[in-house]
Every structure is written in structure tokens, then in C-alpha cells.
Specification:
The protein is of the alpha+beta class. It folds into two domains: 83 residues, Phosphorylase Kinase, domain 1 (2-Layer Sandwich); 187 residues, Orthogonal Bundle (Transferase(Phosphotransferase), domain 1). The chain contains nine helices and eleven strands. Helix 3 packs antiparallel against helix 5 and helix 5 packs antiparallel against helix 7. The longest helix has 21 residues. The chain is globular.
Length: 289
Amino acid sequence: IQLDDLKRHRLLGEGNFGTVWLVTNTKSTKTKPYALKIQYFDANDEKAADRIRKEISLMRKLHHPFVVKLINTYEEEDNITMLLSLAPGGELFDRIHYKLPNNLWDSGLGEEQGKFYCSIVADTLSFMHARGYIYRDLKPENILIGSDGYPLITDFGFTRLLKANEQAFTMCGTPNYLPPEIIKNDGHTSSADFWSFGVLLYEVVQGENPFFYEGLDQVSLFEAICTESWYPCASCSDDFDDLIQRLLEKNPAKRLGTFREKDILAHSWFADINIQELRMKRISAPWKP
């Protein structure tokens, strides 16, 4: 598919990186929609271009049913564009935080829906970790909902390959989801993803962040993450509380998943989830776009 063959229909999103458009291929008899992600940079900033090229190279290696599919790329002097599979359900964030019929807002999907989305995310992270990759930017905005209602991980700008027994020291990610070891620059491994997964899980179920509240400055947030306990969950099951406690362990060496990643999905909270059935997409999603 050539760039000139793509017709832009509407803007799906924009940010510091650039823009994402809903497009179709004018040369095809099928009107299959795609997402066109255009990332701009200064023409003289070779480092910025290399970061995008590295992300593209990584996405070409990560073929997985719950990872957004890279279809083609196009490079120009001041931008690199990715043609991606479309996830028409938008971000998981907009499923967690939603408007009620009376125009008031509510948050949180509860434990049953949380199990559906987060078991798939945990299984997909495990696939990446088994190949030596750490993701480092897990958050609801980076999980999209496909046409079948299943979640898809996207945006691999902070993902990197780690050798056995190697640690990373780059300060990266999104503040609300950072583990203590990244904040303190102690060196981090795939265990950092388990912390972020714990924050994500809490937010999907509860509708709020376990450490952040509106108006909290970043210094206080980082202090809370490194030294304070997470906000207790008033109406959650004991199994859920135990899972969160083990994932939001400040010491990465003791964090659930660090010794054996399969221990996360083997936790009693996931006991009624059949991961093989989910991988085959035989379980109906709680919501479809």
C-alpha cells in the first residue's frame, strides 16, 4: 500500500508525537479502515528519527494477536509514518472513565471485566518478556480495543531489548505508572512492567490510581510511590487485594512475577480465567465497539 493511495477521513488523535488519522486504501475494492500514525521531527534531529526507526524494527518482530499490527511505513525528510491495523474501540482509558446517561462521569469496570482485559495484557507482556523485551509504558491510553472487543497493546516508543542479567537505567515512562526503581534510578528489568501492570489493574477495576489524586504534584507523587502504601480498596475481594499487594511491592526482587512470570496469571484472582480460550478469542468480550 503506497502513501498516496491512502485517503484520510478524520483525525483520531494528536499529541506531542504528531497525529493519527483514520484512512482507507483508494486502490482497494474493500473499504477496510486503517490507522495512519504520522510522527514529526526536526529534519536535522537524527536521534529522533532513529528512535522511531527502532520502534518500527521492534514492531516488525512482535507478531502477536494482542499487539497492534504494523502494515507499512513511509519515511520523509521531517516525518516517519506508520500504517497500522485499526482498533475502532479506542483506548481502554475511555472504557474505564465513562459518561453516564445523566451526563455525570463514572470510573472503574469492576473485577470481572478487569479479569478479561488484564489477563490478556499480562499474557501479552509475558510474550514480550520471553523474547527479552521490556515495555516500560503500560497505561490505559496504550491499550486499544479491537473490533472484537479484545485489547491490543500499542506504542512501543520506550520498549527495549535487555540481555540476560542486564539492567536498564533510562528514566522513561508515564509518572503515574512508574515503579520505585525507575524513579530512584536503581536500575530496572521486566519487573518494572509488573509494577505498572499492578497500577493498571487497580485503575481498570477501581477507576482511580492507587497513588495519585487530582492536584498532587509530581514530587509528592514520586514520594508516595516510593514510600507510601496504595489506597485501600473498600469493596474489592480479598484475592484482588492480595494480587495488588504483591504487584505493588516496592522491592522489585520480591515483586510477583519477578521470580516466575507465570505466577501472575496463576494467582487465585485469575482462577476462573481460561487463558487458552482467551488466546483463541473464544470468550465474548464484555463490550464491542
